[in-house]
Each structure stands twice: as C-alpha cells, then as structure tokens.
Amino acid sequence: xxxxxxxxxxxxxxxxxxxxxxxxxxxxxxxxxxxxxxxxxxxxxxxxxxxxxxxxxxxxxxxxxxxxxxxxxxxxxxxxxxxxxxxxxxxxxxxxxxxxxxxxxxxxxxxxxxxxxxxxxxxxxxxxxxxxxxxxxxxxxxxxxxxxxxxxxxxxxxxxxxxxxxxxxxxxxxxxxxxxxxxxxxxxxxxxxxxxxxxxxxxxxxxxxxxxxxxxxxxxxxxxxxxxxxxxxxxxxxxxxxxxxxxxxxxxxxxxxxxxx
Length: 261
Hints:
Blueprint: H1 2-19, H2 23-30, E1 37-44, H3 48-61, E2 65-72, H4 74-82, E3 89-91, H5 95-103, E4 107-117, E5 119-123, E6 144-147, H6 152-164, E7 172-174, H7 177-186, E8 191-195, H8 196-202, E9 207-209, E10 219-226, H9 232-243, H10 245-253
Parallel strand pairs: 1-2, 1-3, 6-7, 6-8
Antiparallel strand pairs: 3-10, 4-10, 5-8, 5-9
Helix pairs in contact: 4-5
Family: Belongs to the bacterial solute-binding protein ModA family.
Organism: Gryllotalpicola koreensis
Signal peptide: 1-24
C-alpha cells in the first residue's frame, strides 16, 4: 500500500506540472525579442542638438527603430561617403556639398531642402572686446576663429568677406562649426563666426552679435537618402519626418529658418 500510495502522488505531481504550462505560455516564452533596425544619419555639426532631439522623437514614433548620428563638417561627411563609409541619410549644411555628393553618385533620388541658417558672431559672455559688427572682426590684435574653406560655414564666411570687402585674419580654420564655438567658449578665441543656431544652442556660454551682412550668405540645408543605404524605406521615412510638421517645429524652435519655397 505505501508503495502504491507513493506512486499515485508522483503521478499526480507530474500531471499538475503539465497542467500548469499551457501551450500559450510556452509559445510566449519562446518568442524572440523584436529586431531593432538601425539607420545611420550623416549630419552637419550645426544640426547636432536639434537632430538629437528629433531622433528621439522619431524613435518614439517608430518602435523598433534606432537612429545613429554621425556629426561633422559636411565636406568631411561627403568625403567619408565617397570612401565607402556606411550611411543611410545625408543632411548637409549647404547645397554646394550636397551637389558634390550628387555628382559622385552618392545620393539616391533628389535632395529636399529642409531649413536655412545664417551666420552670427559668437563672443565671450558680456562681450568684453566690445565687438559690434562684422567690420570689427578685422581689427588688429583680435583673435578670430572661423571654419575652413570648403566647410559650409567657411564658404558662407568667405562669401560675406567678398561681399563686404572685409577680409579676416583668423587664428585658425576649423573643419566644423562646433570647433569654432568651442574655441570661443574656452577663451582661445575672442570671437568666432558660427551660425545663429549655434549661439542659441550654447545658452549662457557665449553671447551672439548679429550682423546685417550675414544676409549675403544664407545657407540652405538639403537632406537625401544615400545610394548605399541598406534601409531605403526607413531613410525615406526619416526624411519625411524632418520635412514634416513635427520636424519643422523642432528646427524652428532651435532657430533655423524655413526652407526656401
């Protein structure tokens, strides 16, 4: 009897264990984790803060999608693309560099303009050098930093120089606008020629001196999918988000102008 009793208990426990694991629960446990799709966006340095915010919003609106950004001067980004660097989207700070990418067959489709930007002078808080406008940047003894030729902000600076006849003698020429701003913030430069959006994004770290001559060089920002993209549909979706109502509001809040009509 004891042996039969023990065998009965064992059988009951076995049946109980089987009953507690339903086919549905076993299926749920075996389900693989959702696959994350990542797109890489090459974007001009001046877009850093805004695109970081925009990227987070895009990910929230598209579960399972991750946006990875690579920021630099647009001319550098185009060079990287031409050398085979993987990217799905290129957001340029000017039309010249985008057309360079198009001419090298690095772009798929037609680029779309999504914003404009203008130059502004960044100075230390309180403007200790009493800089009032563009012509002051040519004064002897003033340490001025600018972007290099070929970089969108450098091309814009050169355009203003030609239009005004005021030639600057910079302490250095940077490969992206973020490095110019950093020189001003650190005190290595008394003034830097950056974009109005950079000054706004820096907050209390710098003051901005607008100058009317900046209208000689309004930069238009185009965006496009790359020819080498492995996520063409997602690239188009990201571009649509940037050019759509939500993306345009984020850009406007950051100080960017509307794209030309």
